Amino acid sequence: MSELRTLKADLAVIGAGSAGLSAAAGAAMLGLKVVLFEKHEMGGDCLNFGCVPSKALISAAKIAHVPEEAVRYGISLPPAVVNWDAVKAHVRGAIETIAPIDSQERFEGLGCTVIREAARFEDKNTLVSDSVRVKARRIIISTGSRAIIPPVPGLEDVPYFTNETIFSAPDFPHELIILGGGPIGLELAQAFSRLGSKVTVVEMGRALPRSDAAHAKIAVDAVRAEGVTILEGHKATRISGGPGNISVKAEGPEGDVMIAGSHILIATGRQAVTDGLDLEKGGVDFTNKGVTVSDTLRSKSNPRVWALGDIAGHGQFTHLAGWHSSVFVRRAFFKQGSKASSLPLPAVTYTSPEVAQVGLTEAEAREKFGDAVKTSAFPFHDNDRAIAEAKTLGEAKLVIHKGKLVGASIVGEGAGDIIQMVGLAMSNGLKLTALTNFISPYPTRTEVVKRAASAYFTPSVFGAPARTLVGILQKIP
User: Which PROSITE patterns does this UniProt record tie to the protein (predicted)?
Assistant: First the structure.
């Protein structure tokens, strides 16, 4: 074995996903010496197997669904003809268009040393790979997460998809069984159904369990209405068969059911990637949820080490990973006091209708604050833009505690874009009145937020005390 090349760095990063790339770029642009390790694809899961390909597939599925929706507008169109190879080419095109931003060439241009090898700890401040040894002042672990494969008897004997393989499936899955009714499961269930697959979702609890319960039901019912079978409260107990002929036995509230399909997708959650890192040698404590960190994202057992993104155990979102890198740069280089929990976390499920959430759900707020929680909502069916476009399903709901906005949930067309207005208000400590005190262009869907906020103040603005006051004031010349 040849002797390892030794490097010294201000920052060493394991994992070139969203968090690792953002932190590496920030450090490099500040003139620091950065070594970046990546054993697979630059860009990580989001670019190659997650956010980008899934949203590209969803966009193709929306186009395929146009003929079915056109009827409500008085238009008849021929049924869509889906070319799976062409759809995959569209997905690859989206990845390839974004890839240069995350490429090795770009980061080397920023001044990073990029090592396309797996890295592991040798000691508390040293990483090694097949060709290099890096002694670093600071080390970031941003290895992300991967699909959890549940211990269902028989699963190991049949071919199955995860998010890493489904977007490049050689053959179109005409009868797709999906284990898991979370955001990934529901998004792909609707997408593949619209592309022509017969889809069955098996979910142990309720579908979209982390979303507002009432809003999740609206989305789930909409997906069901398009022909997707969603079995909530069902646990897969045995899987059998072979390529093109897979059976799932599931235990439900009314007994066992048998589900037949040509393919199966596993979407039962994700787990942090910690194997192969030799974290023990680095003095880095961890659990199956990831590296044990404080709210500063710094390892509790080795202060040289930071964990960003999914591996930090604070949530599994690309935008959260981006925020983590911002927290790291602010704290490590500018000595500012940002924390992982400094800002409310938004989340969007990209079904049609979309389900968006920021801050606390109504149930979470009531568990935390009790009966002092109030909500104020406004339905899409009273929004003129939604009416004009025949997209009236859904509502905006604000969650309020003692007059302060603590969360919001929106279900409906464009909910993921609309929720950002609430996120901006919450992140900057704006009062609830700020969501009423602006001119909303007409007609736009985002007006549902203003109307929901205005509805909260309606009793005080137009109630009996206000009428009495106005009556008195009217006597003044």
Answer: PYRIDINE_REDOX_1 (PS00076)
Domain ranges in the chain? 5-146+271-334, 155-269, 353-464
Q: Which helix (H) or strand (E) holds 214?
A: helix 213-225
20, 14 in Cβ contact below 8 A? yes
Residue-wise pLDDT for 407-445, tens only, equals 999 999 999 999 999 999 999 999 999 999 999 999 999
pLDDT tens per residue across span 280-325: 999 999 999 999 999 999 999 999 999 999 999 988 999 999 999 9
Where is 378: in which H helix or E strand?
Answer: strand 373-379
Binding residues for NAD(+): 180-187, 203, 269
Question: Residues marked as binding for FAD?
Answer: 55, 143-145, 310
Domain 353-464, classified CATH 3.40.50.720, yes or no: no
**Residues tagged in the binding site annotation:** 55, 143-145, 180-187, 203, 269, 310
What dihedral angle (degrees, nearest 10) is formed by the CA atoms of 360, 362, 368, 371? 150
Identify which of 405, 346, 344 has the alpha carbon closest to the alpha carbon of residue 373. 405
**Domain 5-146+271-334 -> CATH class:** alpha beta
User: Same topology for domains 155-269 and 353-464, yes or no?
Assistant: no
Domain 155-269 grouped into CATH 3.40.50.2300: no
